[in-house]
Write a structure and sequence with these properties.
This protein has helices spanning 20-27, 46-53, 103-116; strands at residues 5-10, 16-18, 32-39, 73-79, 86-93, 119-122. It is built from 3 helices and 6 strands. It starts with a strand and ends with a strand.
Length: 123
């Protein structure tokens, strides 16, 4: 996967849905998955940190200012740096308590990334 893709999108009314084309990408993976997810308050550098874990200067969208950039849950699948029989899936999440975000959405996103991840980073 050359770039991150939206895995779970959040509508304006707070409903969450899996993006079908991204799900098809996941279904094509025939190796074990090592899933690293990140969660934390908005505007704390989660996307930047995930780009660093990917060994890239860019990938997950990063911006300056107070407006959140990531919406929902984004994934990026890369070759695992140490295990050739595994794929590293990085999950970047929308920040908790983001501006214009309902508290219920924050709870759902946090719960989803906890359930999906092999390892969770709380930033």
């Amino acid at each position: 996967m050359n770039a991150p893709q939206c895995l779970i999108e959040v509508s304006k009314d707070g409903k969450m849905a899996i993006r079908p084309e991204t799900l098809q990408t996941v279904k094509k993976i025939n190796k074990r998955l090592v899933i690293v997810g990140i969660a934390g308050c908005y505007r704390t550098g989660k996307s930047y940190l995930m780009n660093r874990l990917a060994g890239r200067g860019s990938g997950f969208s990063v911006s300056r200012g107070v407006q959140s950039n990531t919406r929902g849950i984004w994934m990026w699948c890369l070759p695992h740096p140490r295990k050739s029989d595994c794929v590293l899936m990085l999950l970047d999440t929308e920040g908790l308590h983001a501006i214009k975000q309902k508290a219920q959405v924050s709870s759902k996103i946090f719960s989803m990334v906890v359930l999906l991840s092999s390892t969770l980073i709380y930033n």
